[in-house]
């Protein structure tokens, strides 16, 4: 298995203002939660510092037996810091969405790596599973 630290330099024909040929690499990391994860479960998903979240996919291959929502948070932060109350009851894919309160975390993860948590909420759950897939890249420079 190969490992690398972002940013990865990729040579191409177009040059940036500083004369370097570079491009960003999009990466993803995934883990899963089940009906029994009703308190914040620490996921194996870790994104490096200065990362921008591109998308968070919530794939439910095993339907839940009752109405279910999923919160995605970060270790040391709020349970719903990244995605709040996404409905994941039925089989299928749901896109996690940034809100007005968490968009800054989606644009720039900051100067430290982030580890994710997930928590399932439902009544009398006995079945269900959701795969959490975080897609990310180097943070883009944003105007001040």
Q: Helix and strand layout, with pairings?
A:
Layout: E1 27-34, E2 41-47, E3 51-62, E4 68-74, E5 83-87, E6 92-95, H1 103-107, E7 114-122, E8 129-138
Antiparallel strand pairs: 1-8, 2-7, 3-6, 3-8, 4-5, 4-7
Strand order of the largest sheet: 1-8-3-6
Major sheet summary line: 4 strands, antiparallel
Number of strands: 8
Order of helices and strands: EEEEEEHEE
First-to-last CA distance: 39 Å
CATH class: Mainly Beta
The CATH topology corresponds to Jelly Rolls
Structural class: mainly beta
Give the amount of beta strand, in percent: 35-45%
Helix content: under 10%
Quick one: overall form? elongated
What's the number of helices? Answer: 1
Spans with pLDDT under 50 lasting ≥5 residues?
Answer: none
Report the mean per-residue pLDDT as an integer: 81
The radius of gyration computed from the alpha-carbon positions, rounded to a whole number of angstroms, is 17 Å
How many domains in all? 1
Q: Examine the secondary-structure arrangement and name the CATH architecture.
A: Sandwich
């Amino acid at each position: 298995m190969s490992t690398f630290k972002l940013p990865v330099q990729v040579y191409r024909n177009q040059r940036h203002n500083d004369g370097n040929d570079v491009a960003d690499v999009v990466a993803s990391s995934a883990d899963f939660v089940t009906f029994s994860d009703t308190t914040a479960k620490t996921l194996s998903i870790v994104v490096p510092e200065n990362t921008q979240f591109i998308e968070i996919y919530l794939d439910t291959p095993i339907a839940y037996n009752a109405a279910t929502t999923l919160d995605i948070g970060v270790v040391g932060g709020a349970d719903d810091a990244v995605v709040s109350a996404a409905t994941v009851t039925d089989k299928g894919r749901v896109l996690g969405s940034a809100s007005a309160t968490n968009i800054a975390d989606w644009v720039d993860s900051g100067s430290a790596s982030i580890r994710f948590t997930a928590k399932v909420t439902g009544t009398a759950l006995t079945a269900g599973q959701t795969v959490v897939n975080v897609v990310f890249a180097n943070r883009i420079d944003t105007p001040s």
